[in-house]
């Protein structure tokens, strides 16, 4: 048991992902959001009481309910497939055949190892093969997959895969540069470091095309 706990701590402390998919149970949506909020509220109450907090204080009285609603409705809302954004696509009637880049998309996610924030920017690009997608939909896809307990590598892959399906092309790329508060505020407590992940599909695997994309987003990291 101790060895297993040490192994689990090592995975979490080193931010290692063991699955390309979010580990969600099959029965995850058998109960309603309201039921989840009530259950989480009681759990948060228990945590705060165990820590010695006085929940009769006006400042803390509503905290369990606020946290529960935030978990279900906001920061983990991307777990619910019903909230998946519809990727509206259109025919590329104006025959634009160059790279389209949407950069500096704000990423707010949560590290699944410590439940602390991941904050950064995503840069997404694709080359149309006859289909284009609304610009805001790219932001919404990033937001949807970010609003889960995540690891950054998986998030990067999910964004690319979703856009590849929507656009019907492999020619999609994503780079995310983000700070992990589980690194910045605890453990090593390195407030300056950030993590860069990338996923390149289709034509973006070509060195020239990839470099053009990285030049657009002014990222000096070499891949």
TrEMBL record:
Source organism superkingdom: Bacteria
List of residues binding Zn(2+): 111, 114, 182
Catalytic activity: GTP + H2O = 7,8-dihydroneopterin 3'-triphosphate + formate + H(+)
Key words, A-Z: GTP-binding, Hydrolase, Metal-binding, Nucleotide-binding, One-carbon metabolism, Zinc
CC terms in the record's Gene Ontology section: cytoplasm
Pathway participation: Cofactor biosynthesis; 7,8-dihydroneopterin triphosphate biosynthesis; 7,8-dihydroneopterin triphosphate from GTP: step 1/1
UniProt-listed Enzyme Commission number(s): 3.5.4.16
InterPro entries cross-referenced by the UniProt entry: GTP-CH-I_C/QueF (IPR043133), GTP-CH-I_N (IPR043134), GTP_CycHdrlase_I (IPR001474), GTP_CycHdrlase_I_CS (IPR018234), GTP_CycHdrlase_I_dom (IPR020602)
One Pfam family per UniProt: GTP_cyclohydroI
GO molecular-function term, one example from the UniProt record: GTP binding
Record GO biological process: one-carbon metabolic process; tetrahydrobiopterin biosynthetic process; tetrahydrofolate biosynthetic process
Keyword Transport: no
Domain spans labelled GTP cyclohydrolase I: 40-217
Subunit comment: Homopolymer.
Family, per entry: Belongs to the GTP cyclohydrolase I family.
Protein name: GTP cyclohydrolase 1
């Amino acid at each position: 048991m101790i060895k297993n706990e040490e192994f689990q701590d090592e995975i979490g402390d080193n931010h290692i992902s063991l699955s390309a998919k979010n580990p969600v149970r099959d029965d995850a949506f058998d109960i309603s959001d309201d039921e989840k909020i009530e259950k989480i509220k009681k759990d948060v109450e228990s945590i705060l009481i165990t820590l010695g907090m006085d929940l009769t204080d006006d400042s803390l009285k509503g905290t369990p309910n606020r946290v529960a609603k935030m978990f279900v409705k906001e920061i983990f809302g991307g777990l619910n497939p019903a909230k998946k954004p519809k990727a509206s696509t259109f025919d590329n009637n104006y025959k634009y055949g160059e790279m389209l880049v949407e950069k500096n998309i704000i990423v707010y996610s949560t590290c699944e190892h410590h439940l602390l924030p991941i904050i950064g920017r995503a840069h997404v690009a694709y080359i149309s093969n006859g289909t284009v997608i609304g610009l805001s939909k790219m932001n919404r896809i990033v937001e949807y997959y970010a609003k889960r307990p995540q690891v950054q590598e998986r998030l990067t892959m999910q964004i690319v895969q979703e856009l590849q399906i929507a656009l019907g092309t492999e020619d999609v790329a994503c780079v995310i540069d983000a700070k992990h508060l589980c690194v910045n505020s605890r453990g090593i407590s390195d407030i300056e470091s950030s993590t860069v992940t990338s996923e390149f599909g289709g034509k973006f695997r070509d060195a020239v095309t990839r470099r053009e994309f990285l030049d657009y987003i002014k990222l000096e990291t070499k891949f």
